[in-house]
Amino acid sequence: MSEIKQNCRICSKEFVVNEWEQAHLQKMGGFPLPTLCIDHRHQRRFAYRNERKLYKDNCDFSGKDIISIYSPDKNLKVYSQEIWWSDKWDGRDYGRDFDFNRPFFDQFQELRLAVPRMSLLNSNGENSEYCNLTTDNKNCYLVFGGDFNQDALYSIFCFYSRDVADLYWVNKSELIYDSIDCANCYNIKHAQNTYNCRDGSFLFDCRNCEYCVGCVGLRAKKYHIFNQAYSPEDYAKKVRELRLDTWSGVQKFKIEFDKFKLNFPMLFASIVNCENCSGDKIKDAKNCENCFDIYGPVEDCKDVFLGGWSLKDALSSSHIGHKSEIAYESIGIPGVNVTAFSSFVWFGSNVYYSDTVAYCNNIFGCTNLHHAEYCILNKQYSKEEYENLRAKIIEHMKKTGEWGEFMPMKNSLFAYNETVAQDFFPKSKDAALSECIKWLDEEVREIKTQDIPDSIQDVKDDITQATFTCEKTGRPYRIVPAELKLYRQMGIPIPHFAPETRNEMRINSRNPHKTWSRNCMKCSKPIKTSYSTDRPEKVYCEECYLAEVY
Ligand SMILES: [Zn+2]
Ligand SMILES: [Zn+2]
């Protein structure tokens, strides 16, 4: 076997299928080579993940009020999580025969539209109804894909944290606001790539610092502003003058800090305690190629976005891990052994072409099922019947060209801009509609500057009664009481942007899930970096970078 070059059937771009990938495709059941480039494969799957758009609805079983990822106008049958997991119904009641005169995807889609769906994908939450894709959260509000938090607000992928808001990828922190890729921090605002720091704001790549504002690449420093040392008294005076308790003060400082950051070299990628890995944001992994947001132990993966906590042998997949092994083209996969072309599979094994299933083994073309085995299109078979029929369907799908392809994007139950596809592969409404992809017309208002007290100190309790208009996007938003409490405690001004706009800004302030071959701008060593060639930053290899910061 040697590398094979393919051209994407959407963008025509050439991509390589290496020997490991070819062996992986064979191992998983003889899939043909991918017909889409890596990005277009990611995009198609991402269009099935609505992480953050929530709606009020009623459970179609009990009539009770629920929060749901499916807008009521979609006319789907949606059950509360409690009913969905109960024995009051059975997804197999919707089972049907396979028709060999029709394509698989059409039949699977009809089933997906008929079977009652789970309203949200959470487990073990307490007073955290407005969350999705989470487990073990308490008193959390609009937290997505984050687990084991308490009193967390408006955050994505935050873990083991409390009294926090506006986070993206933050671990084990307390009183932290508007921060990205941080861990073990206390009382920190506006930080990125920062660890073990306390009592500071506007930090970038700092470690073990206290009382620092507007600092880059500092190690174990105290009382610094723009990387300059001050006496504790002068520091306090200077920080007071910055008026970071005001919206105008924060906006002004942010501009200055972004300029200041350009004086410092950037590390080409964050690859920590790894062997033979490429991509960015990888920790404790081995043999991972072109992977991003990987938290080990992870081994033998390629083109995986967001995976970890024990993951092995995954190709072109995302949001996957928690003891998952052997995967291809799947999304939302905790605890599954062998899965391909599936979305939201919780625990189980040998799951192919399925969607929103839990604790299932040996299923094919199933949706909204739990604790089942040997089912095809939700219909129960014996082991022998299952294996025979599965083999025949695969032969059929080879003829229709469906074998080896993920479900088409237009079959997603979500509008494109309800999903994370819009975060990483943004499309315009016209482009989506021209491709027959659904679009959500969000409620937006005329953008105008509004009357919000500049300083948090001047904000009255009744601010939680008002509705505001995002000054960037026109989205309406409110301030919830828990949020006001945190802002007062941490001295944070009332934001003029809606929570979802803030999420988007944080996502966009991280580097893309792509690498470029460049040279270290100090020693010229070749590097694969997530900093594209046209960016203004100085980008260094690890050795040159560490020589600067320590
Ligand atoms: Zn492409
Ligand atoms: Zn270098």
Q: How many beta-strand runs?
A: 34
Helix content: 10-25%
Question: Termini separation (Å)?
Answer: 46 Å
What is the overall silhouette?
globular
Unreliable residue stretches: none
Reported for the largest beta sheet, the result is: 11 strands, mixed
The amount of beta strand, in percent, is: 35-45%
Bound small molecules, deduplicated: zinc ion
What value does the Rg take, in angstroms? 24 Å
Q: Give the overall pLDDT as a whole number.
A: 97
Counting DSSP H or I runs of 4 or more residues, the number of helices is 12
What is the oligomeric state here? single chain
Structural class: alpha/beta
Compile the SSE list and pairings.
Elements: E1 4-7, E2 14-17, H1 19-27, H2 38-46, E3 55-58, E4 65-68, E5 78-79, H3 81-85, H4 104-114, E6 117-118, E7 122-123, E8 134-135, E9 141-144, E10 150-159, E11 162-171, E12 174-183, E13 186-195, E14 198-204, E15 210-216, E16 222-225, E17 228-229, H5 232-242, H6 247-261, E18 265-267, E19 271-272, E20 275-308, E21 311-321, E22 324-328, E23 331-334, E24 336-340, E25 343-352, E26 355-364, E27 367-370, E28 373-376, E29 379-380, H7 383-400, H8 421-424, H9 429-434, E30 467-469, E31 476-478, H10 481-490, H11 499-508, E32 516-519, E33 526-529, E34 538-540, H12 542-549
Parallel strand pairs: 5-6, 7-8, 9-10, 10-11, 11-12, 12-13, 13-14, 14-15, 15-16, 18-34, 19-20, 20-21, 21-22, 21-23, 22-24, 24-25, 25-26, 26-27, 26-28
Antiparallel strand pairs: 1-2, 3-4, 16-17, 28-29, 30-31, 32-33
One zinc ion binds at residues 8, 10-11, 13, 36-37, 39-40.
